[in-house]
Design brief:
alpha+beta; 11-stranded mixed sheet; globular; Dipeptide-binding Protein, domain 1; Dipeptide-binding Protein, domain 3; 23% strand
Length: 535
């Protein structure tokens, strides 16, 4: 499978720090319009900015993805919160070869860029190959892909390796199609040396060159991003002529939303932060994040956590319902490594269940009496929940089974350093996916993979059944069958791996009651700005 494990946020918790850091509110509470008429036609979106660029070939951070999704169309997309199957956008249809290496897309008629130029296969090919060759962060999705055309309305994307996830990749915002003539005139190139030769980022940060429902009016990465409706948009005209994304810390978002009267959305109020908001506000969320414990499998690091019986004892000691309650609205007890938002999640009823007597029995079978383990976690608040509060709950639950967890809170950078060193006996982390391909977890967390090695879990220390289950996932080319294989893999991981999933939590959008279509999506762009309307 060609999906690169670096796409997993588990390996990039620095992003968590950015999303939870306080940002200065860029605007006062209100609609963001310059007058009554402007305010009535303006949608205001409040979020704590995580943004570096609006260049679709380089966009990676959350705020940038939200904006570029509205500026640039992709071959395929997702509707609302359903990420089980991509649907047509620029491509009216597509076919996949039996070996999952060749994907042929038929472009729809009548699509124009915002300057009125017709969109052709040349633009698609240029955009995808530029994304690959610029080699910025999102390029890991398309490293093995090559785009070509057979005519002006037919694009062929080939993968060097069998990859049934190519349609999902081509729904991501970074694969947005740019006007190739305009882009080239402003320093863009799709040549093999684009990583050094392409100089178009400054242009794309000032002017959009897409076919999406909106165009870029202004961009200030410290303050706000302003979008305006595209007069040449080929699809349904968006309800709002103007969208203002404002940089605002989460506490100010909560205060603003408690006073807002119309056409306003917050992207960062979730979990316990929802408490105290007016009941009239609309909320939308889906469980797309897991929280899990990491127990080192290397006896040289910890003879306790490397004991399989201890890992199962700790698993049996945890009050999963009580842990989930700490996260507030939209949370639930953990079941497997795939969050409920994504294909391949374990079904209801397989969530973790507490059995303290079983935990004590397993400790006895392991020959462990009152074991003690250092429990390291980052001192951050993520989606409204202090991880220290959750760690303390886990500590208390484990104590009832005779397990002593010594809490070791660390600043995020220190936590990441010790996690990467492979010397952490026990840790705690949130994890979500940058794009909805849950089977990429196998590339990252199976025995001998990147995250597994940081937990001391080599192939030699793993049960052969786990290794075989991961190989089956990778070799299964039918998406539905691969999702079922993921379930089998997770069940074995729950029995044998050094990971212990304790809770699921939701991303959330909060909106004023006059709005419709404010549906949270785990696809990466949080919400579809063009889908928002009024009652």
């Amino acid at each position: 499978m060609s999906v690169n494990p670096r796409r997993l946020r588990a390996a990039a918790l620095a992003l968590v720090a950015l999303t939870t850091a306080s940002a200065t509110a860029a605007c006062t509470a209100g609609s963001g319009g310059s007058g009554t008429q402007a305010a009535a036609d303006t949608l205001t979106v409040d979020t704590s900015f995580v943004i570096k660029t609006l260049d679709p070939g380089r966009v990676y951070e959350a705020t940038g993805v939200t904006a570029t999704h509205a500026l640039y169309d992709t071959l395929l997309t997702f509707k609302g919160s359903d990420v089980s199957k991509p649907v047509p956008e620029l491509a009216e249809s597509y076919e996949a070869s039996a070996d999952a290496k060749t994907f042929t897309f038929k472009l729809r008629e009548g699509v124009k860029f915002s300057d009125g130029t017709p969109l052709t296969a040349d633009d698609v090919v240029f955009s995808l190959n530029r994304l690959k060759n610029v080699k910025a962060s999102p390029a890991v999705m398309v490293t093995d892909l090559t785009a070509s055309k057979t005519d002006d309305k037919t694009v062929v994307v080939t993968s060097a390796q069998p990859n049934p996830n190519v349609p999902v990749v081509l729904a991501m915002s970074a694969t947005g199609v740019v006007n190739s003539k305009v882009a080239k005139a402003n320093g863009a190139t799709d040549s093999a040396d684009a990583a050094s030769a392409d100089t178009a980022q400054q242009f794309f940060d000032k002017t959009s060159a897409g076919s999406g429902p909106y165009t870029l009016k202004s961009y200030d990465p410290s303050s706000q991003v302003v979008l305006e409706a595209n007069p040449n948009y080929w699809g349904a005209k968006p309800r709002f002529n103007r969208v203002v994304l404002r940089n605002m810390d989460v506490q100010t978002q909560k205060l603003t939303m408690s006073r807002a009267t119309s056409a306003e959305v917050s992207l960062d109020i979730s979990g316990k932060l929802l408490d105290g908001l007016p009941d009239t506000l609309l909320t939308s969320g889906v469980q797309d994040t897991i929280y899990y414990l990491i127990l080192n499998a290397d006896p040289a690091v910890s003879p306790v956590t490397s004991n399989p019986k201890f890992r199962q004892a700790l698993r049996a000691s945890i009050d999963y319902q009580g842990v989930a309650a700490l996260y507030g609205k939209g949370a639930g007890p953990g079941a497997g490594l795939v969050a409920p938002a994504f294909p391949g999640t374990l079904p209801a009823g397989e969530e973790g269940k507490r059995d303290v007597n079983l935990a004590k029995q397993l400790l006895a079978e392991a020959g462990l009496s009152k074991p003690t383990v250092k429990f390291t976690y980052p001192t951050i608040t993520y989606r409204g929940v202090d991880l220290g509060t959750v760690a303390t709950k886990v500590q208390g639950d484990a104590a009832e089974a005779g397990i002593t967890l010594e809490l070791n809170p660390q600043p995020l950078t220190s936590f990441l350093d010790v996690m990467r060193s492979g010397k952490m006996a026990m840790g705690f982390s949130p994890q979500s996916l940058n794009y909805p391909v849950a089977d990429s977890l196998v590339n990252n967390m199976a025995p001998g993979a990147g995250s597994a090695l940081r937990a001391g879990w080599t192939v030699e220390r793993a049960d052969p059944a786990v290794v075989a289950a991961g190989e089956k996932v990778v070799s299964t080319l039918d998406p539905a069958a691969r999702a079922e294989a993921m379930k089998d893999w997770q069940r074995l991981m729950n029995q044998h791996s050094p990971y212990l999933v304790i809770a699921n939590n939701s991303g959330m959008n909060v909106a004023t009651p006059d709005l419709t279509g404010v549906e949270y999506t785990p696809a990466g762009w949080q919400l579809d700005l063009a889908a928002i309307g009024t009652r």
